[in-house]
Batch of 2 targets.
Target 1
Amino acid sequence: MSKHRDTMQALAKARPTRLEPDGPLPDPAALTAYPRAVARMARAPRPGRRLALVGGGVAVVAAVATVLSLRTGVPAPNATASSSVSATTAPTVVPTTASGLLLVAAERYDAEPVRDGRYWVVRFQHGEQAKPTIVDEQWLALRDGDPSVAYFKVGSRDWRARPMEGHSAANNFLLAGQTRPPAELAALPSDPDRLKARLLSWYSDEVSNEGRDQYLFYCGVAITLNLPVPAPVRAAAYRMLAELPGITALGRVTDALGRDGMAVGYSRRGDSGNVSQQRLIVDPATGYALAQESWTKGERGRYTAVLKSQWSDESLPDAADLK
């Protein structure tokens, strides 16, 4: 069995079967795993975004491939500033095609400065129909020797901290089915054609059995949604997605948190015959992604909404200090 399949099997075992508000708090490493659609792509339950080694077992922590450098419509924060993701007023000219929206998003990132820091800090809200919502904030080390910690809360409970044992800068992030150190992510091409070629050089049946286009879609969403890459690389991922066959424009939508945006969708027919759709919701005024959602039969299923995403040089906070 390959190392990648071992990882995916460990993730499957780590995922809770239910997340009831009165039940035990779930493992934060399992909360933020890839969506099921990505799991089928990887021939096992969900390829994730970050790889967490919890209690000696390997589990994928928060992607869907895979969070992105998102910020609000206000000027981007510095390396230590706090940042939240919210929708802003839409531009005067509203894109009407999927490629148009993605190209607008790419142009917004062209003006973003290149940043870095000691930690990649992301906060998500995860939900799935009637199950309780889960919020997690991850401080993921970007430098060797620094610890990584996940903070999480279920429903109205207080924040809890859980060190990510075995986590390091070398294995914090997953792209194309393999861990990628920060230096490798930072060196991804800023040209969309070269980025596509790099991603396809990692493509194999060990990573995906759904075809190259779907593989590229999930890789592109991972880069735009949740990985610590420079702004030009994120812009390249948007441009790559704009050229990908099968992506459709869904127009104006409201995400699970009530934020307005515009969405593109990628659909596939599952083994059961049902058509599922993965949606990437973008704020067209800023280019920042707001959420990824899974829809089936016209209903929202699992979703991941980005609440904040940034680099930070600060020390790890106490759980009680999180707001």
Note: Residues 176 and 219 are 6 Å apart (CA to CA).
Target 2
Amino acid sequence: MKDDLKDFVNKHRDEFDHLDPSADVLQRLHAQLQTDRDRINKNKTVFQRLPYIPWLAAASLLVAVLSAYWLFNINRPTTDQPLAATKPLTDEHQPTGHAPANTSTNPIETEEAPPLSPPSQQAAAKVSKNLHSRTNAVLTAPQTPSFATRLRDSSSASTRLAAILEIEQNQQLDHRSLTLLAQTMNRDGNTNVRLAALDVLGQHLDQPDIVDIFQKSLVEQDDPLVQLGIIKIVSQLDDGEIDRTLFSLAEDPYTFRAVRDEAYAVLLKKNKL
């Protein structure tokens, strides 16, 4: 793009350059320059005006270091000085006025030391003490509560779950364990604990009392989730009493709807309707 102003200035440059600044302007410039020079001279540092001060500071520091080193080593004992040898004073070197020490022993004043017990007796006493302390520790150690106690521990659901897990790990259920698990499945206040007991019972369908336990639990059970789990397990069993209990649940209007539907589905699958 063409710059008209620049072309105009270039063509009429002579008309702009004929004017010179006045003498007053030059005087003001000289005065300002002189003021700046004075300010720079005032701002010079002490070290620039007095160049010997750094040398004085270095000398003072050196004197302080040498003085500290001298004070530190003046009282320090040297290793070259031998320690004074100590010798026992003999009779001839003892100070005058002191009677020589009486080295004779008086049988009346001398007491015999008690005889030390043989090492074998000391070792036997030590072993006996250790055995006694271990026996006391075993007797005073807290005993692990039984399964029944832990399953009835209403203060901790984790304790009851741990007891059920231990019963499951045994892999063998006696009549007492079956009864405890059935009571937990029907009456425990925690649904997860009930389901854990149901899961362990469901792994032992070959037990002779398992059918009776599940049939009674279907009637007594008040937790719909546990009822659904029981129905799922008993669907594998071919038992007339179980089928009649399922039919009663399906016909009961107070039964939870999902439980009713599941009971109907099992009966239809078995062709019991």
Note: Residues 137 and 143 are 12 Å apart (CA to CA).
